[in-house]
Amino acid sequence: MILANITVPLLGFVDTAVIGHLNSSDFLSGTALGSLVVTIAFWLLGFLRMSTTALASQAWGRQDSEGLSRVLLQGCVLAILLAVVILTLQSWLFQAMLLLVDTGAHMEASLYYAQQYFDIRIWIAPVSLLNLVFMGYLIGIGKTKQVLIAVIVCNLVNLIGDIVFVPILGLEVSGVALASVIAETCQFVLLISYNVSVLKRLKPFVAASYAGIVGLIAMNRVLFMRSALLQFCISFMTLYASRFGPNAVAVNAIMMQFFLFLSFALDGVAFALESLVGQQVGAKQAKKSDYSSPKGFGLGLSLPFFTAWFI
């Protein structure tokens, strides 16, 4: 999971490098602002991955095949509903960002590119949210190698797309957004292929999915608040940097890649613990969960020092 997670910010370095080599900082600052809106919209719904992992791991631990199918179905239904909400409110989402940044003349070009990026990338919302559910399910049942393969394939496709669309075809910011859309679609297809067997078993649970969704939403309320607070901290620097012009936003986008590298590496430990502890709780093996948590805590404390030294 650590390997899978750190490939995500490494790709961010590539995106930043490709856009950063264009002849104006407006391109990079515009991409940073546009991706910020998309990232907030998607990451606020990161509870789709976390809750699916938690519930799937517990069902796996108690060997409840029906429960596993129900968890995946409810996650997919909720992801689609939330994606519809995002697409319906997309213009308001971008306008909300404009209320928080400096819209003076010095930011005019950056905001134009931000809109360009946002208008393309936001349409991948259904695929992105379903990817969270499918990855959460695979992590929950311990199939982390499949997650690693899916993430690596996605990143490779994105990397190739960046190179083809930006330096070769000259699509600039639109090229980066298109590369991300194609990459996430490829990841979606791969994740679907890993879950074909359980998807075939979903039909009998369609009628019973509604009752479970109500409880699922109630459980995710706290996770949503956690994600909102985290996103506020991460987004504040980018939004505030707009007061100092596109150069400040562009520099902040570069520095943020180092922060994300450390954060995603630590998330790998969290993902693994969610799966292990959930399975142990489902199997009613409390002693094992008492052992896993301190080990994860120790690894979480040591990993930042190693990663910071590496950076």
UniProtKB/TrEMBL annotation:
InterPro entries assigned to the protein according to its UniProt record, in alphabetical order: DinF-like, MATE_fam
Subcellular location field: Membrane
Pfam families: MatE
Annotated membrane topology: Multi-pass membrane protein
Residues passing through the membrane, by range: 27-50, 71-100, 120-140, 147-169, 175-193, 205-224, 244-266
Keywords: Membrane, Transmembrane, Transmembrane helix
Family the entry assigns: Belongs to the multi antimicrobial extrusion (MATE) (TC 2.A.66.1) family.
Name this protein carries in UniProt: MATE family efflux transporter
